[in-house]
Each structure stands twice: as structure tokens, then as C-alpha cells.
Design brief:
Nucleotidyltransferase, domain 5, eight-stranded mixed β-sheet
Amino acid sequence: MIILALNCGSSSVKFKLYKSGERKSLTSGEVERIGISGSFLSFAISGKEVKKEFECHDHRAALKSIIEVLTDRQYGILGDLSQIAAVGHRVVHGGEKFKSSVMINNEVLAAIKEVQDLAPLHNPPNIMGIEAAKEVLPDIPHVAVFDTAFHQTMPEQAYLYAVPYEWYGMYGVRRYGFHGTSHLYVSRRAAALLGKTPLEANLITMHIGNGVSAAAIKGGISVDTTMGLTPLEGAVMGTRCGDLDPSIILFMIEKEGFYVEELEKILNKKSGLLGITGKFMDRRDVDKAADDGDHRAKLAQQIEAYRLRKYIGAYSAALGRVDAIVFTAGGGERNIRLRERVLSGLENIGIVLDAKRNAAANTREKESLITTDDSPVKVYVIPTDEELVFIEDVIAILEGRYETHTHFTYSFEDPKYKRKAE
């Protein structure tokens, strides 16, 4: 059985083609910098990395390029598209309706569209990916895997806001949380690395990509997370502001006469690292500018790290005991100096960084410990594998044995599990 996993993010599309019977990845890759100059598709085939540069204006173009690669005779990955048994789709926001992965039908797709205004950078490309994939592969099952599902375990005290309670009842105004499949994967892997079961581990997981979120995970379930009603709340992100005083919005409406649509665009697409620097949303560009002496780029680095460091403190208090902290996603896995800035000065709460280990952890393939052996709180860099979560959910649904994540055991929870690239 061959499964295609699609993970359509705000500026990227990750994909993995997986052969379930052999527990083997046929290929995986990513289209990066969608809508940005210098976009490209990279994928692995026969142990080699292939990179194809092209102008990618939107997610439909990205999906088209992926399908072309999968069926290209030069690479010999697939003879034709009929070999694909099912497609798993990442969907960022499922509201309160979806607490687990589900087969996509017309009603499910309509429900996803109903909440797309809550995730304006993500649900539209997720929907675009679903619709485009169903056009190309109309006769096979498509499954939605929701970012919000993992965080449905949060208690009321964590997910409710101190606004009129009626807003929750009438409109579903509450904290939902996102990056759920990533937090699920790395938390289960961290528990295994600690020699614990998920039920025994207290963790702070930090997904740092273009979007950024941290989660407090107690006994294998999410008890708090930084993103809220939408993916706009929380940490400083590539183009999103994260936490801010709500009165700033009212103040700027009075000063500039902004309409709702203008403010939505500013807060989601013109803030964060881009807003501070005025130029850059990609950390690689920010870091280069900072190295060249750009003051605002340096300031963006400091603000981002400071916010993340505060969340480590807050979640340490919320959990009471922290066994480990996990960095994941592009920035978390590859940005050595970002991790150093975030963890600097946290020895008082049991985090002792090993500079050499941190410098060596610069890959998306290997799981690494970056604290000293005697550090009371361990810190790991764990490459996320959201696509594997998708694939295992899809296969379990097709085979009729799927349960919600609180009762489902994944293959990567096994202490003997090894990533193929290791």
C-alpha cells in the first residue's frame, strides 16, 4: 500500500511517499519559498538529494511539480498515479468539531472551509491541496489530519479566554493550538529517548518554523500551548506578530483608519520577523543581515529568543516538573545560534547547554542531545516527522483500527525505532 502525505504550510509543501507493507519511504521532499523569489523543490531518491529550482507562485503550482516528479520516468518513483492507495492531508484548523483524523467527504470539506478564517495563512492552502489532489486522484480515499486535534486535551483553564463567556458558546472563541502532529511526534520520540513511556514524561516542545508554537505536555497529552484561537497568538514568527496588547489594534484603527482586512493582513503577513526587520521573514536572511551589522535584524533575533525563553519559564511552572525540552522544525533543528540565545542563562531552572553538542546538531536527520550529561533538564533537537503521523493515521483508518491519539500507539514510540537516515 502506497500512501502520499501532503503537508501544505504557509510558504512550503512537504510530501512523503510511503510504502506501508515494507515500512519504507519511497521518497520525501519539500517545495520551499512558495511565493518568494528563489523557490525550489528538493527530494530524496536512491540516497541522493535532488534539487529543482523553479518559480512557484502558489500551492497549486507546488502540488503540480510534486506530481510531475513522482511520475517522472527519469526518477522511477511511480509507474503511474494509480499506485497511490490514499492521500493524507494536513489541515491546520478543525475547530472543536474534529478531535481526530477523519476520512474526507463533502461534509468534512465543507466543515473545514467553515473555519478557514481562523487560520487564514494555512487552511486556504490546505483546502487548495485537498481540492487539487482530489482532482488528480479522484477515486482513492483522502484523509484529513488536524493540527488542532492533539491539543483538544487542554483543560478549560488553559483554553478559555477571560472574555465574555457567551463568546465561547456562540462563536467557539477559545484556544485551539496548532502544529499538533509535530508536537505529538517529537513528544513521543523524546519520551522514548528518556527511557520513559509517554504517560511518564513532562515535556516542553518548541516547533520553530515560519510559524512557531510551544506546547506543555504532561503525561503524554497537551495541557497548554502558545497559539490560540488562530495561529496568530504566541511567539514571534516569520510574518505573524504573536502576543500583543489588544489595545494596539484599537489604537491603530484610530490613528490609521484600518479596515479589518487590512489589519488581518498586517498582523498575519507583515509582522513578526518581517515587521521588525522591514525586509526579512526567513531566519537565514535575518541572520545574514545581523552578521552584516543590521541593527533591526539583531533586534529581531533578540526579541524572538526572549519571547521563547519566557515561554520555557511559564511552562516549567505550569508542568511543575520538566524532563526535557525539544527543539524541532526548520529553525529549531538547524539554527544553532537561535537555540543558544533561547537557552542562555537558564541554568537556574536546570538547563545546562553543551556548546559543542549544540554546534554539532545542525541536521534535519539526526536526533541529538544538546545539554551536558549532568543537566537536570535534558534538551533535544528532534527532527519532526509530521508526515509519518499522517501516514500511520491514514493506514489505521483504512484498516479500521484507528483511535484518537490518547489511545493510539505509533511505531515511533518504540525505544528501538530509528529514523531511516540515521
